């Protein structure tokens, strides 16, 4: 319930402050596991990616945020869960895969941290997508978070990972990651 209220408020705020437009929402399945893989420009990106989606989107957030009084419980109630940064967080990966196996939606930023959009992706999103069998939707955030400026978010067509599922080669995660990142970069470039 809190998630729905926050999402409704954010839709109004984004429409007013950022002249926010979304396209490609029809590409997001209405049920089943989905990974939304987006570029990462700002701290506001998780709310940007999830605001127009009619399903609850879960995110990893750096573990330190959960220690902040009031804020930690608030983001947890919105579906966020902690990830330890600086290495592989097996518990966070396990949580993400379990959520997806329950048919939920995960928002993941393959770059790992905010960037100008030209950094290589990290392998976590690819690992989670392959292990869960989730549908992967590339997402492009286009524009800057400047008041009254125009912002767009594009939800792309699902990425077909079927060629990678049975692949046991050592570089499969790198190739899946590059496939995801290439789709995101192409969508950003197209505007």
From TrEMBL:
<keyword id="KW-0012">Acyltransferase</keyword>
<dbReference type="Pfam" id="PF01553">
    <property type="entry name" value="Acyltransferase"/>
</dbReference>
<dbReference type="GO" id="GO:0006654">
    <property type="term" value="P:phosphatidic acid biosynthetic process"/>
</dbReference>
<keyword id="KW-0808">Transferase</keyword>
<dbReference type="InterPro" id="IPR002123">
    <property type="entry name" value="Plipid/glycerol_acylTrfase"/>
</dbReference>
<dbReference type="GO" id="GO:0003841">
    <property type="term" value="F:1-acylglycerol-3-phosphate O-acyltransferase activity"/>
</dbReference>
<protein>
    <submittedName>
        <fullName>1-acyl-sn-glycerol-3-phosphate acyltransferase</fullName>
    </submittedName>
</protein>
<feature type="domain" description="Phospholipid/glycerol acyltransferase">
    <location>
        <begin position="34"/>
        <end position="144"/>
    </location>
</feature>
């Amino acid at each position: 319930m809190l998630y729905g209220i926050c999402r409704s408020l954010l839709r109004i705020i984004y429409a007013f402050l950022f002249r926010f437009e979304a396209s490609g929402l029809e590409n997001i399945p209405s049920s089943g596991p989905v990974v939304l893989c987006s570029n990462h420009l700002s701290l506001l990106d998780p709310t940007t990616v999830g605001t127009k989606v009619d399903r609850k989107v879960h995110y990893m957030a750096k573990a330190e945020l959960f220690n902040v009084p009031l804020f930690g419980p608030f983001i947890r109630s919105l579906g966020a869960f902690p990830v330890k940064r600086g290495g592989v967080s097996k518990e966070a990966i396990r949580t993400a895969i379990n959520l997806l196996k329950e048919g939920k939606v995960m928002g993941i930023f393959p770059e790992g941290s905010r960037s100008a959009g030209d950094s290589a992706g990290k392998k976590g999103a690819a690992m989670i997508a392959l292990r869960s069998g989730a549908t992967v939707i590339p997402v492009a955030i286009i524009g800057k978070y400047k008041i009254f400026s125009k912002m767009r978010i594009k939800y792309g067509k699902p990425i077909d990972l079927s060629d990678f599922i049975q692949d046991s080669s050592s570089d499969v995660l790198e190739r899946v990651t590059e496939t995801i990142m290439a789709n995101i970069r192409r969508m950003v470039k197209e505007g």
